[in-house]
């Protein structure tokens, strides 16, 4: 779609004004979501050389913008499908959630990082046929570069680690809370725009890293009132599949693709899965056995199938023993069907789920020791998780655990006389300088209104600026919880 602005510019040449119609045509793809006044009339006066009028020779006087025929189109007041506004009540909940994400990360000694929401498209293109690739918001910018809104944070993190190179000392423990975009089918807890909390460890090859990451998520759940009877973690390792595929002679470069197909088991009919696996060159026999192994839910049974010597069993055993030591063994269970839908995982993978089985995955992560080399860097062992902001809110609603979060302002400062607005401003500044939050009443309002407002913003005190007290350098303070009222000098107001 293309849009156009017609500008009527009036220039003053010698002594007469001459109107000129300018048409600005701009490309707009995808179609713009805002309306433009169909006619923008703009008056410009250019002072002609030597002409009167007082302006400097040759200068352009800033044109006053006048709109005529204000035939604006009405806009849709809803945000685009799958995106959200955050009015104050929702923003309070978001801040509450993000503060917990951030506090838990800091409790574990992680440092906050961030990346641009807009990245080069190439960063997200991988060969394994992942769903995330088809969900990409991508476009060409004005410089003909292919760019995309990030669907996840991990590729950006990998890019930054490569860019930092040897200047950072390993291991890195980083966290981020960032907006992600996926053109998803909208279901409960899945949006097109969402936020993810990520914690990642770069440079630790041992399972101690995965164990700590799960511990941090458990810590988060406990803080917000979610217990092990509400949620759990299904844990497996990509090495289980790797060992099986090696046994059946499936080439290593097929591994990512096979994982992506298997991850769809609960989403598409099993015959489709078998057909897709067949395309990768796996024999029918091997497919049957593979699918059988995926239904295994105990480590002992897995050991019977794989034997006890492989890395998969060793890693998983170590993780379960560390879970005991961290104190969250009740939260985790082995489930061979967990493979995760992203091609880059190489070892332990895990997903948080609600035990009632009503919601999509709450969070998920795993080890991705070879992601960096896919971007041309040297591989460094890495693992991490992503935790969305949508499913957890659904879960909190289900459990009736959503916090009551009203607005919180400590003081309402109000002038009792409109001549005292300046004095009230001085009082507000004095309190704010002492770190107190103040809602200053900016208009003349009856006391009844002020009390109502105080209740609405959950104020602790009302500070009233009256003529007699102010002449004495004092104000009246009313403590709203007790009704206690007293006069205090401004310099003593704490
Ligand atoms: P993921 O499983 O694709 O993994 O997403 C992680 C979490 O983000 C999901 O479990 C869910 O909570 C949330 N999420 C994903 N898509 C949506 C959506 N459309 N709407 C709402 N929430 C969503 C990753 O993204 C990996 N990069 C995680 C990771 C970090 N692995 C290692 N480090």
From TrEMBL:
Keywords: Ligase, Nucleotide-binding. It comes from the Eukaryota. Its EC number is 6.1.1.21. InterPro entries: aa-tRNA-synth_II, aa-tRNA-synth_II/BPL/LPL, Anticodon-bd, Anticodon-bd_dom_sf, His-tRNA-ligase, HisRS-like_core, HisRS/HisZ. It catalyses: tRNA(His) + L-histidine + ATP = L-histidyl-tRNA(His) + AMP + diphosphate + H(+). One of its GO terms (molecular function) is ligase activity. It is an enzyme of class 6 (ligase). Residues 82-403 form the Aminoacyl-transfer RNA synthetases class-II family profile domain. Belongs to the class-II aminoacyl-tRNA synthetase family. NCBIfam families: hisS. HAMAP family: His_tRNA_synth. This is histidine--tRNA ligase. It comes from Camelina sativa (False flax).
């Amino acid at each position: 779609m293309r849009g156009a602005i017609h500008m009527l510019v009036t220039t003053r040449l010698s002594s007469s004004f001459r109107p000129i119609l300018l048409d600005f045509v701009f490309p707009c793809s995808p179609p713009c979501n805002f309306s433009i006044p169909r006619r923008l009339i703009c008056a410009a006066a250019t002072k002609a050389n030597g002409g009167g009028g007082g302006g400097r020779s040759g200068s352009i006087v800033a044109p006053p913008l006048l709109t005529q025929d204000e035939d604006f189109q009405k806009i849709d007041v809803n945000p685009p499908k799958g995106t959200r506004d955050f009015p104050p009540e929702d923003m309070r909940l978001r801040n509450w959630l993000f503060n917990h994400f951030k506090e838990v990360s800091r409790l574990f000694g992680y440092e906050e990082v961030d990346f641009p929401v807009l990245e080069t498209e190439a960063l997200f293109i991988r060969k394994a046929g992942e769903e995330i690739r088809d969900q990409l918001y991508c476009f060409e910018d004005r410089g003909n570069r292919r760019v995309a809104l990030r669907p996840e944070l991990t590729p950006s993190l990998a890019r930054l680690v490569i860019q930092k190179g040897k200047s950072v000392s390993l291991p890195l423990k980083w966290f981020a809370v960032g907006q992600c975009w996926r053109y998803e089918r909208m279901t409960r807890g899945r949006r097109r725009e969402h936020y993810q909390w990520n914690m990642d460890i770069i440079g630790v090859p041992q399972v101690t890293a995965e164990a700590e990451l799960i511990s941090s998520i458990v810590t988060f759940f406990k803080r917000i009132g979610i217990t092990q009877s509400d949620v759990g973690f299904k844990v497996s390792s990509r090495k289980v599949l790797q060992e099986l595929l090696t046994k059946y002679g499936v080439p290593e470069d097929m591994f990512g693709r096979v994982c992506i197909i298997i991850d769809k088991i609960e989403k598409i009919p099993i015959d489709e899965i078998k057909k897709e696996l067949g395309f990768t060159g796996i024999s029918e026999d091997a497919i049957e056995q593979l699918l059988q192994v995926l239904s295994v839910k105990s480590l002992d049974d897995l050991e019977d199938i794989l034997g006890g010597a492989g890395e998969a069993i060793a890693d998983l055993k170590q993780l379960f023993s560390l879970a005991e030591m961290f104190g969250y063994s009740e939260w985790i269970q082995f489930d061979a069907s967990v493979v995760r839908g992203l091609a880059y995982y190489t070892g332990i993978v895990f997903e948080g789920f609600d035990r009632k089985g009503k919601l999509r995955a709450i969070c998920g992560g795993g080890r991705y020791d070879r992601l960096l080399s896919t971007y041309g860097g040297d591989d460094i062992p890495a693992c991490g998780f992503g935790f969305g902001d949508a499913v957890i809110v659904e879960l909190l609603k289900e459990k009736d655990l959503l916090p009551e979060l009203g607005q919180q302002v400590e003081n309402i400062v109000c002038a009792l006389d409109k001549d005292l607005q300046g004095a009230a401003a001085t009082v507000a500044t004095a309190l704010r300088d002492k770190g107190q939050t103040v809602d200053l009443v900016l208009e003349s309002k009856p006391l009844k209104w002020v009390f109502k407002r105080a209740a609405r913003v959950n104020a602790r005190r009302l500070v009233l600026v009256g003529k007699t007290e102010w002449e004495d350098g004092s104000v009246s303070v009313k403590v709203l919880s007790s009704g206690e009222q007293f006069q205090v000098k401004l310099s003593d107001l704490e």
